[in-house]
Amino acid sequence: MNSTKKLAKTSIIALILTLTFAATFVALPVVNAEEDTYAFITVSPNPVGVGQTVSIIAWLDKMPPTASGPAGDRWEGLEVTIEKPDEKTEKLGPITSDPVGSMWASYTPTMIGTYTFQLSFPGQHIEGPGAMGGYINETYLPSTSRKVELTVQEEQLEPWPTVELPTDYWERPINAENREWYQIAGNWLGLSGGDNFGARYYNASSNFNPYSKAPNTGHIVWTKPLTFGGIIGGEFGGGGTSSYYHGHSYEPKFIPPVIMQGRLYYNIYPYGGFSTDYPSGIKCVDLRTGETIWTKDDANIRVGQIYNHISPNQYGGIAYFWDTLGSTWKMYDAFTGDYILSMENVSSLASDTFVMGPSGELLTYILDGQNNWLAMWNSSLAIPPPLPFSTWLWMWRPPLGETLDWRDGIQWNVTVPDVPGDESIKRIGSGVLLATTIGFAGSASWQMEAAFNATTGEQMWVKNQTFPTYTTLWGLQGSMMDGVYTEFIPSLTQWFGYDVKTGDKLWGPTDSLENAWGMYWTGDNIAYGRLYSLNIDGLHCYNLTTGARLWDFYSEAGGLEVVYPNYPFDVGGFTIADGKVYVVTGHSHVQPLFRGAKLYCIDAETGKEIWSISGWLQGGWVAPPTIADGYIVTQNCYDNQIYCFGKGLTETTVTVPEAVQPLGTSILIKGTVTDQSPGDTCLGVPAAGTPAVSDEYMTEWMEYLYMQKPCPTYYEGVDVKLEVLDSNGNFYEIGTVKSDGSGVFKKMWTPEVEGEYTIIATFEGSESYWSSYAETVLGVGPAPAPAEPIEPEKPAEAPFITTELAIIVAAVIVAVAVIVGFWIIRKRK
Fold this sequence. Notes:
Layout: H1 3-27, E1 33-35, E2 39-44, E3 48-49, E4 54-60, E5 78-83, E6 89-95, E7 102-107, E8 113-121, E9 124-129, E10 135-140, E11 143-144, E12 148-153, E13 220-225, E14 258-260, E15 263-267, E16 282-286, E17 292-296, E18 303-311, E19 314-323, E20 329-333, E21 339-344, E22 355-356, E23 362-368, E24 373-378, H2 379-382, H3 388-392, E25 403-405, E26 410-415, E27 424-429, E28 432-441, E29 444-453, E30 459-467, E31 480-481, E32 484-489, E33 494-499, E34 505-507, E35 521-527, E36 530-535, E37 538-543, E38 549-553, E39 569-577, E40 580-585, E41 598-603, E42 609-614, E43 626-628, E44 631-636, E45 641-645, E46 650-655, E47 661-662, E48 667-675, E49 690-691, H4 698-707, E50 719-725, E51 731-738, E52 744-749, E53 755-763, E54 772-781, H5 803-828
Parallel strand pairs: 1-10, 3-12, 21-25, 47-54
Antiparallel strand pairs: 2-4, 4-7, 5-6, 5-8, 8-11, 8-12, 9-10, 13-45, 14-15, 15-16, 16-17, 18-19, 19-20, 20-21, 22-23, 23-24, 24-26, 27-28, 28-29, 29-30, 31-32, 32-33, 33-34, 35-36, 36-37, 37-38, 39-40, 40-41, 41-42, 43-44, 44-45, 46-48, 48-49, 48-52, 50-51, 50-53, 53-54
């Protein structure tokens, strides 16, 4: 027998013996045993400044043996004894450990000197099934850690330096050390709560994104076609009266846009966003460039999710998106678009509305008003770990390719008191579910309202509201946020405000709106302690505490284009971020589309227009302008394209003569500042390379580049700062110039000393563009040597002739003349 066979035989015998011993142990009766424990404690930082907080971390050497994920025992009665420099004693506890047997606490010392910390464990008996198998019947003995000293000094430890928010271009991912950037790094998950008429898509309470900057001009970064758009052609009516279908009112083509981690997700629908008959796919594009990252066929997106799973062994967010149309829901990976799992047996009462839980879990509520029960479904409860080890190790791993039972996600199901009529959830916010039922009695209408705790389902209050006249087919409309819910009565064009905890009226009625079209409410949001109400007639702002009307904004007069005094506003068409309100005119879907509709940016504080640009967002069940990372994306129904607004990248160039110039010579500095946005203009040229234009002329310039409007007759470029570093190390500014309509700038300048120069041209950015700079070098040589002065030539002196010499010369001349005359006469003969 060779050695390999011996080894195999030995292994088999060992395995049999192991199994035999295991079976023997299982068969034996469980005996109570005792086991020692060892306690440990640390305090940091050490040393620390007086008044600064330290972290106390303490643990036992053993995990609670029955702990398994959120279930099982924990160590109980942990206590920390603190001895102060004045010999007084303070105790923290009793404290319950976490699943791995540790605890954490913070403490702030108030005096200089030496503190001591000590952990004590009173001991504990544990019985039950062990996390790793078997049955536990064990007494764990008490233990005490050694004392740990903390030195507290007057000198303060320097905290981690604060990271300033970026003032120039930035991209994702954001380095995790830049914690302060959370203030500008909001996502847009496509959440909506309660009555979906009004299309809330930031969260369940409003279209207010508090974690994003937003554009201050109408600068366009890129456009991307959704489908054919604009005028069809002369075959379908003279005068350009027919244009391609844009999806109004119930088949919008850009719904719901979701933005996660700087990526934009949207459905590719030929006919609209609510039908499962045409699931033609999902497109994922880079928010900053419009470049397609991936396309997913035969899928829909309805909501995004970033699940921030926190457990002893796994920390951090994972991004998904969900298709929740129909009776089967599907989950996908947001990074790749890959399918993950499905959920069947979805309740027919489950609405397509979601609230984000504390860790990003998706929550949806089901209210059966006829049978008087209320339930909450939790996505994290519906998805169990795929393998037992995931439970033991506290790992989140959605099982790939499986079909799960949606009903397993029901976290609670409670019976609720009966109220007249059939209730439905209208609003979700401030930790409250507001359910309403509406009925009619002659010329009056009534609405029964019931509030439920969104965490437990417990009914908080019931109110019967009666109003003097018929309201609307959908009941009263309004928002619920910041502890207040609001209701609009169309027939009176008035608002009321109520306390979400009691249902008691806080204020109202407000003053009636003057314009009759104000009867038609089209959406509202709560932000900055204010209620913003969008009606067909205009946008109105109210104080959320008092109901006082603060300002009104009306679009431009419609003239002969529309049947309204001003261009109308329609459902779902506004969003709030960065102290600004973005609202779009629309409403009509008849051919031809009326001209002159716009996207407006309005100051949320004053109601004054900041900027506007051509564009038309259809009414109906639509997504509002969607904002994240400082960019807006929205559909322009004049051409069926997605438009992305935001600051554009720029490029600055600068040149000087290459040859070394003599000192004293004037130098021409010249260069360009150009827009480097990635979009393609409708002029058949890329946007990259077009001149950067001043904010004042941005709207007209963008309409020319992207919307086939006339080129502005006059526009200006941007300011460019010119600076110099000379050979002596002196750094100074030589002036600021403005580029022209072609993006070119220039300046004459005379160097003052010899040597090598660095010329720096800087465009410091604007509300429309990110900054850029460029530099070049210049050589300045010595000035020419002074020329030697040239003396004028002296005239030649006439030679001196004596009298005698003059008589002789004259005689010679006469003789010559006589001889010449003689020969001439002789020849004639």
